[in-house]
Automatic annotation (TrEMBL):
PROSITE patterns: ABC_TRANSPORTER_1, ABC_TRANSPORTER_2. The keyword RNA-binding does not apply. It holds the Pfam family ABC_tran. This is Phosphonate ABC transporter ATP-binding protein. It is a peripheral membrane protein. InterPro entries: AAA+_ATPase, ABC_transporter-like_ATP-bd, ABC_transporter-like_CS, ABC_transpr_PhnC, MetN_ABC_transporter-like, P-loop_NTPase. Keywords: ATP-binding, Cell membrane, Membrane, Nucleotide-binding, Translocase, Transport. It is found in: Cell inner membrane.
Length: 261
């Protein structure tokens, strides 16, 4: 279970990017985070694995409080937090297999890491996962020889090699064409179900969020405006998240009242 309580992120003396966010995610499900640019979507995801340091608040993953961890403890905790990036974050000169196996760097010793000598069980798991997502035939190809969709599948497998307890995807389809982006969303949806894995996806495409995720969280200027099922994400919610300030204030007051009641 992921539990975020009163999360605040401020840069210097500027207005906070995140303003007291609360979010709980239990069990295997796919949750989309939607909102306009600057709403705080990427910041929230990156606070979870502390690529961005929270200003205050609490983030707990399966009873482990992440915000208070020291460097050594944080390195160990990050092994259980898979991350899929918009820009893929692959090492182009390395093969697909080498990129995939980099997901095990947190589990091997220094010699194994620098020499890229991984245990056979890691190699076997890499082949199994690559077969599952349809890229096993590219195992010995350089990463820069692949298409965008193929590169993103490598990123997904690399994250799964960590044996994560949660998967974070930061705009995983933003660099892809419409057909390929839908294929990646279907893949994340099916992997969540197969592996009993909670998945949080920061996404701009509201249509895909409604089609491929089980829950939508809407942010506006660092505040949660909507949290509910895709079927409940109506024009009122859309206007509150992307429209005028009055609609946002009305939705925020409504959600606050419902929580209190």
């Amino acid at each position: 279970m992921l539990k975020i309580s009163n999360l605040v992120k401020r840069y210097g003396s500027d207005e906070p990017v995140l303003k007291g966010l609360d979010l709980t995610v239990e069990g295997s499900c796919v949750v989309s985070i939607v909102g306009a640019s600057g709403a705080g979507k990427s910041t929230m995801l990156r606070c979870i694995n502390r690529l961005v340091e929270p200003t205050s608040g609490s983030i707990t993953l399966n009873d482990l409080e992440l915000v208070s961890l020291g460097k050594g403890e944080l390195r160990r905790a990050r092994r259980k937090i898979g991350m899929v990036f918009q820009g893929f974050n692959l090492i182009d000169r390395l093969t697909v297999m080498e990129n995939v196996l980099s997901g095990r760097l947190g589990y091997v010793n220094f010699f194994q890491a620098v020499s890229r000598r991984f245990p056979q069980q890691d190699i076997d798991r890499a082949f199994t996962l690559m077969q599952r997502v349809g890229i096993v035939q590219y195992a010995n190809k350089r990463a820069d020889e692949l298409s965008g969709g193929e590169r993103q599948r490598v990123g997904v497998v690399r994250a799964l090699m960590q044996e994560p307890e949660i998967l974070l995807a930061d705009e995983p389809t933003a660099s892809l064409d419409p057909k390929t982006s839908e294929q990646i969303m279907v893949l994340l949806q099916s992997l969540s179900d197969e592996m009993s894995l909670p998945v949080l996806i920061n996404i701009h495409n509201v249509s895909q969020a409604k089609t491929y995720t089980e829950r939508i969280v809407g942010l506006r200027h660092g505040r949660m405006i909507f949290d509910g099922a895709p079927a409940d994400f109506n024009k009122e919610a859309l206007d509150a998240i992307y429209g005028g300030i009055e609609a946002a204030e009305e939705m925020l007051e409504k959600n606050t009242w419902e929580k209190v009641s």
